[in-house]
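Sat 14:20. Reprocessing the chain from the morning session after the first attempt stalled halfway. Input below, unchanged.
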Amino acid sequence: MSRYSRELSVAGALGVLLLLLAIFAPSFYDAQPLLSRLTAAAPKLVLACGVALVIITRQIDISVGSLFAVCGTCAGLAAAKLPMPVAILVSLSVGALGGALNGVLVAGLRLPSIVVTLATMVTLRYALMLSQQGVFINLPAGVQWFGLPMTAGQITVCGVAFALLALLAFASKHLAAGRFVYAVGSDAEAARLAGIRPQLTTFCVFVFMGAFCGLAAVMNMVQSPQVDPNSGRGLELEAIAAAVVGGVAVSGGRGNLWGVLAGLLLLVCIGPALTYAGVKPYWEKAIQGTIILLAVVADGLRSRGKPE
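Finished this time. Tokens:
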């Protein structure tokens, strides 16, 4: 149980918050508004899963918000003229290429990931601003909710996010490739001596991160009749926060993807809880920041308490 103490504590805090909402704000659980909140959070879950894998390899990616916007714009432009499956493929491909660029610079040239992804974040964001000039992209009628009724489309979006989470959680524990990610994050040199290729593993993780940006962009695109080229601002911080609060160690090598889900839900539920409590909305970010700080401090104390 001590191995999952962080994840259990976050799940416990989430449970208490949900119980308080059930007692003092039962309307929070009205079916359609609740489903809408979960649907809006689904793309963030996909990004948080990818960011968690990056952090586990002892790297960081702060370009995900910008890459998300680029993928969404490319998917929107493709969906306006081409069938939806082609638009999805375009978004995934653009995301994977963006991730591969980060991966080459970080794993191939061994540059610091914080510097590389900061550069790509700014470059992609301003290139998109210059190319689109902030103009929204109108989507054909059949794109929204994948052409399904709204409720069915919302369930589909949530189902995709949950299925990806379950697949990654299974792979991280039961497949060799998943264990390689943890091994590289724990000790890259020891992993190399064990026959693992740390640079290739890191490169592949960044490629997957990019592809997840593409998938999240499509999941976000189908929720609206238009694509906003300025979308994705701040998503990198939300994804990193969900991963860290959910128990992923900032020092790498440790983390549970189910904990990422609990961390994201905890952060997402704070806003509605404050609204029902009549608290001014700007306190949401302050409380989220405090939770993130406490998570980082707890992680640091836990690492310091380990025997050398």
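Residues 2-300 form a domain with the ABC transporter involved in vitamin B12 uptake, BtuC fold (CATH 1.10.3470).
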